[in-house]
Q: What sequence folds into this?
């Protein structure tokens, strides 16, 4: 049957594409490599050593093997931060923030996202005990205050809530001796890899407690360097994801509560009290700036990516709901306290105002509304530019959603509707849009 | 020749032991093992499925049956003609002594079979599956007139279903392949020779067809209702440290964009869901084992989409069963939705939280015959009132 032969499903081998041009025949010189290996072997034998001194050509297999390992999963509702911080197995990330700044909740949300993808989590809880963390995970998942769970939830309800994550979550035992603590982390990682056959996410909550175990205060700096280095080596060797929660130094707390402004996220480098060691060993550094306010159930915040392994340092806006400690990504940067204060002061100084000066809460709300409007305009511009690039064939909704900066779900559809209403684009078919020629 | 009591042998025979004897290796997921090796041949995809209760089916060869028929196939014997010999081999595998002896025969050595050829790389398998599915789809019969009568027998409104999904019919159009044609084509033709309805399985990234699932209109007892296209793929197996991922399902997994998304299991429940949930997006797992992967995929997409949309998981009423040897077996639907470490309910809750995940259990008190969504529809139950949400927080003192 000629028709089927033309569509030969699988028996024929596809010719390999020449993907490396020009000089596809270029290769490593075998003779030089042999001479190198021979000399290394000779010296090893003479000196009773076992050096390897590999060349990059010998590391390609490792690169390809590492590609089969998963990357750290971010909560799906945080696409902008996920683009800035991509973490591979064997990489470490630090999350810095002041006391009560939501570090643990932030890490819990990352852990939940990874468990959703089938990646196990090891929690090294050195600050809060296992029961406190468990309650906080439930609170985060359900969006309720921990107080409600601790005081009111019946056992059956707690059992049911725990059943959704208990299969993939384990606590590392706590030890007073730092070497035993690190050995226990090593053991629990080995067990996890044997059982789940994939690298776990290991969260150390928080680093200061671990380093404090190691030494008296006079030697804290040196012990921090040692502990972080040991953990990073372990992470690299065992190929898991390491998340270190670190506290900010007291001197820098003013910046992370928004009382002091700074120009770029990289200015947040060195904010952690364990700064130099953490900076050296972590591929990604995040700092959480939560703008506290009295009696506010939801706080504005900035997450600063001060060191990124994809080179996208910068900051993203977040909101932090106190009930359950739930972090949600925004598509704009909310106002900092210093911006609010400056605007409120300006209001007060305005002698021509007709009414009373706005309160700081009103000022914050107005600034945020303006910023959200700007973000929507940027979204529309990004979508329009992409649709124009696609030309007359148009662009499907699925493709529009992939545009960087297009926003999430209903925001995309709203932007498309607004562009359609202003006759900049037109609908082609069911879910496809194209630009209208001549419109600018 | 020794005499064996058939019932005793069958009661003692375990699917795992028979698979090991025939050199069939694969990973058990819940009560199923899927692998690319059947009793007779090695295939390009996981075409062979064996259940712990002993039922098996090879989608590539379109053969199936119980453990005795599996042994007969593996040993190249005729089940009816060589029955005493088949029973003898089965007894040896199960460790059952003959009626006229006082000790079991020694367990036979596992059949020596060469290692199965390695599977092609995933990207290549997906590419081939896509090409093959497109070819098969083009060779199916179109037309509401062929499909509508069957849908009506299942209590469905053909217009409502066909407005939302394209369904075609087997057998394949065109001349029957001859001995000169490829083995692949002859097998494909044989598996799609029945009069059946064909539903496409779409790829999660582009929406291209990766499999064509064919549902027999009148399956004979013990025969699987669904057969998949030869070489079709629905799951990307786990590699290195990556967990298994959903590759394809019924519906449009490539574009999850609904305020509510309904997840069902199986072809008929998928079509039923399309009719019942007119304003929701309906996705169907091709088997119970795929349900957790489908839930993970849909939950991830919904979490990325917004903070309000909901996921409704339809749980089939699959009560615990008792195996022939007396062991209690949990139903496959229960395992895939509730029990596995990454079950559908667990993954959905981890991604979305409890307020965005709902459930419909296909059960009506006093009606043991109602097991799935289609049964509920046929029984005249208003399915939408059966949506269960997480209970409201407990009232606080003061």
A:
């Amino acid at each position: 049957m000629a028709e089927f032969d033309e569509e030969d499903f699988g028996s024929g081998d596809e010719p390999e594409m020449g993907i490396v041009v020009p000089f596809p025949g270029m290769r490593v010189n075998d003779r030089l490599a042999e001479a190198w290996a021979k000399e290394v072997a000779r010296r090893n034998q003479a000196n009773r050593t076992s050096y390897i001194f590999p060349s990059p050509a010998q590391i390609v297999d490792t690169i390809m093997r590492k590609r089969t390992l998963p990357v750290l999963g971010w909560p799906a509702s945080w696409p902008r931060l996920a683009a800035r911080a991509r973490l591979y197995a064997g990489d470490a990330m630090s999350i810095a923030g002041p006391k009560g700044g939501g570090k643990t909740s932030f890490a819990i949300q990352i852990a939940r996202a990874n468990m959703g993808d089938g990646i196990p989590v090891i929690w090294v809880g050195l600050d809060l005990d296992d029961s406190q963390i468990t309650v906080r995970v439930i609170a985060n998942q359900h969006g309720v205050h921990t107080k409600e769970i601790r005081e009111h939830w019946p056992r059956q309800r707690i059992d049911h809530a725990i059943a959704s994550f208990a299969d993939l979550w384990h606590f590392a035992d706590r030890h007073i001796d730092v070497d035993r603590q690190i050995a226990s982390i090593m053991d629990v990682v080995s067990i996890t890899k044997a059982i789940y056959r994939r690298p776990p996410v290991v969260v150390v909550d928080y680093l200061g407690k671990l380093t404090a175990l190691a030494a008296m205060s006079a030697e804290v700096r040196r012990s921090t360097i040692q502990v972080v280095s040991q953990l990073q080596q372990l992470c690299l060797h065992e190929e898991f994801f390491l998340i270190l929660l670190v506290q900010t130094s007291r001197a820098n707390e003013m910046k992370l509560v928004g009382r002091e402004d700074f120009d770029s996220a990289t200015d947040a480098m060195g904010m952690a009290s364990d700064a130099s060691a953490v900076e050296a060993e972590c591929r990604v550094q995040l700092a959480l700036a939560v703008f506290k306010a009295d009696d506010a159930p939801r706080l504005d915040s900035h997450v600063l990516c001060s060191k990124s392994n994809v080179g996208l340092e910068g900051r993203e806006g977040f909101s932090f709901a106190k009930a359950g400690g739930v972090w949600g990504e925004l598509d704009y940067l909310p106002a900092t306290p210093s911006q609010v204060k400056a605007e409120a002061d300006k209001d007060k100084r305005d002698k021509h105002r007709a009414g009373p000066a706005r309160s700081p809460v009103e000022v914050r709300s107005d600034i945020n509304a303006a910023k959200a409007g700007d973000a929507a305009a940027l979204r529309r511009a990004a979508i329009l530019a992409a649709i124009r690039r696609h030309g007359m064939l148009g662009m499907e909704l699925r493709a529009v959603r992939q545009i960087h900066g297009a926003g999430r779900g209903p925001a995309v559809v709203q932007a498309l509707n607004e562009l359609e209403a202003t006759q900049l684009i037109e609908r082609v078919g069911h879910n496809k849009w194209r630009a209208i020629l001549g419109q600018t | 020749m020794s005499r064996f009591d058939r019932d005793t042998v069958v009661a003692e025979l375990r699917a795992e032991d028979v698979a090991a004897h025939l050199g069939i290796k694969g990973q058990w997921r819940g009560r199923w093992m899927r692998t690319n090796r059947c009793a007779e041949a090695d295939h390009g995809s996981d075409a062979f499925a064996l259940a712990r209760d002993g039922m098996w089916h090879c989608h590539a060869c379109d053969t199936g049956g119980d453990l005795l028929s599996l042994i007969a196939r593996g040993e190249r014997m005729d089940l009816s003609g060589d029955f005493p010999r088949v029973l003898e081999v089965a007894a040896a595998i199960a460790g059952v002594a003959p009626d006229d002896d006082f000790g079991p025969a020694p367990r036979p050595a596992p059949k020596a079979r060469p290692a199965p050829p390695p599977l092609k790389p995933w990207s290549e398998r997906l590419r081939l599956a896509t090409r093959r599915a497109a070819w098969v789809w083009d060779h199916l019969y179109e037309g509401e007139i062929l499909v509508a009568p069957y849908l009506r027998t299942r209590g469905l409104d053909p217009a409502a279903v066909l407005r939302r999904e394209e369904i075609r019919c087997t057998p394949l159009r065109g001349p029957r392949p001859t001995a000169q044609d490829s083995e692949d084509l002859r097998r494909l033709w044989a598996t799609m020779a029945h009069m059946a309805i064909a539903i496409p399985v779409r790829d999660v990234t582009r929406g291209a067809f990766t499999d064509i699932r064919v549902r027999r209109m009148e399956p004979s007892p013990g025969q699987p209702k669904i057969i998949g296209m030869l070489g079709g793929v629905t799951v990307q197996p786990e590699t290195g440290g990556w967990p298994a991922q959903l590759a394809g399902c019924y519906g449009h997994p490539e574009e999850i964009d609904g305020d509510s998304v309904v997840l069902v299991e199986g072809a008929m429940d998928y079509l039923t869901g399309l009719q019942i949930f007119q304003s929701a997006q309906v996705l169907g797992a091709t088997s119970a084992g795929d349900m957790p992967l489908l839930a993970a995929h849909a939950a991830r997409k919904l979490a990325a989409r917004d903070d309000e949309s909901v996921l409704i998981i339809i749980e089939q009423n699959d009560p615990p069963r008792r195996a022939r040897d007396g062991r209690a077996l949990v139903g496959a639907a229960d395992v895939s939705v509730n029990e596995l470490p990454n079950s559908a309910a667990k993954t959905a809750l981890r991604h979305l939280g409890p307020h965005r995940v709902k459930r419909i259990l296909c059960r009506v008190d006093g009606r043991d015959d109602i097991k799935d969504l289609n049964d509920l529809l046929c029984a005249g139950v208003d399915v939408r009132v059966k949506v269960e949400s997480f209970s409201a927080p407990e009232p606080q003192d003061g």
Observations:
- The two ends of chain A are 55 Å apart (CA to CA).
- Residues 1-7, 10-15 of chain A have pLDDT under 50 and may be disordered.
- Chain A touches chain B through 54 residues (CB under 8 Å).
- Chain A has 17 helices and twelve strands.
